[in-house]
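Protein record
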Amino acid sequence: MKSCSTAAGDRVRSRRLPRSLAALGLLGLVVLVASCDMILGAHDYEVAPPPEDPPCGGFEFVAPECGGCVEASCCAEADACRGSSDCAALFDCLATCDARDGECRFTCKSLHATHHDAAAETFASCRTQKCTAACVGCGGIFEQLASTCDECMEREGHCCEQSLACATDPTCEPLAQTMLACTDPWCLMHHFGSGDGLPPALTDALTCAFTKCAIPCALGRKWSCLGEYGFQDEVPETVSFSLWAGHFTGAPTPNIEVKACSRNDLACLNPIDIQTTVDNFATLSVPGGFDGYFAIAGGGLFPVLYYHFHPLWFDMSAGLDMYPPEFLDAAFAPAVLDPELGALDIYIADCFGQPAPDVRFSVSPGEGTTPYYTVDMLPVLGPNETTGYGRGGFLNVQPGIVNVVATLVSTGQEVANTSAVVRAGMVTRLDVFPAD
C-alpha cells in the first residue's frame, strides 16, 4: 500500500469509500491521491517486488534459450549437479558458452575433468538430449576432442546430422559421453571391449567424424596417455576370446582353425586351446592376463599369427580379415613374397583408440625387408608413414622374434615398442596401443 505524510506529520491513507459516498467523494479522492504523489520523497516508499527464484542449480546460462530449456527439462539434474564440486565447476564454465561455441565448451571440458562423475554425466545427458539446439548446436558429441572439432562437424554437408542423431538418442549419447571421458586404451577396453558393439548412431557419427573431420578433431593424434596408464591388477582365472576370422569380403569361410599360443611357445607346440570356426566365429578359453598370440589357418587363405592389443583381462572379441595368396601377390607387386620368409602387418591406435597417422614403423632385424603403408585401404610400397588407416608393415622378414618400434614422424617421439614372432609363409598381424 502506498502512503504519504502531511506537513503536520499526520499520515493519510487511501481507503475504500462507503458505497453511498462513492459518487460524491470521487473528485476528492483523485485530488487526495494526486497531492500525495506530489509530496517530496513519496516514491521512496514503493514496495519492491519479491525477488525471483534462482535458476535451477544456480547456473546462469549466457544463452537464454539454453537456460530456459534447462529450467523446463533438466532442473532436477542441474540441482544434483550443484551438489558435486566437479560437476558444478564444469557447468559453471559451460554456462558461459554459446550454443555454437564448441571451442568454449572444449576449453571448459579440458579445464574441468569430471572423472566419470555421475551427476555430471546425468546432467550432460539430459541437457544434450533434451536441449540440443538451445545448448549444444549440432549435439557436440565430439567437441571435447579438439577445439576445432565442433566447428568442422557443424559445417554444411559434414556431420551435423550424424552428431544430432547420436546426441538425441538415449542409447547413443550416454555411451558417447563415456567413450569421450576415457583418456587411455585401458578405459576404452574396459567399457567397450566385450564385443557388445556400439549403437549404429554412434558408429555413424564416428565414421563421419573420421572421414570428414579427422584432423580438426585430432582423431588418431592423441598421445597424452603415453607411460601414464596401466591395465588392471586383478587377474581372473580364465577369460574367453571370441574371434571372427575369414575372407576379407565377409564371405563364409568354413573350417578355419584357431590356436591360442603362449608368448614363448614360438612354434605353438603346446596350444592352450584349439577351436574351429563355425559361421566364421571361434571362441577360445585362455588364462586371465593372456598375452600370447593366436595362430589362424585354413579356408585357402594366407595363414596369420595374431597379437591382440593388450593382455586379455576380461572376455573380449575381435575380428580378423584374411586374404587369399593371389590377392596378396597382386597387392604387393612388384615385390615378391618369399615363401621362406614371413610378413609383418602392423596396426597402431592412439590413446583414444583411433587409427593413428604420422607414424613410422621400424623392425629389427630388418635387413632385406620391404616396407609398405596402407593408403586408401590398400598396401602401397613407397610411403614412409601411416595414413589415417594407421597400418603398415614389412615384407620378407626373417623368421624368429622381431622387435617393432613406432615413432611419430612429426616429433620423433617413440609411441610403441613391442616384439612378436614371425614364421615363414605366414603374416604376423600385430595390433599396437601406445606404450603404457
User: Anything to note?
Assistant: The chain has a mean pLDDT of 84. The first strand starts at residue 3 and ends at 5. The CA atoms of residues 362 and 405 lie 5 Å apart. The first helix runs from residue 22 to 38.
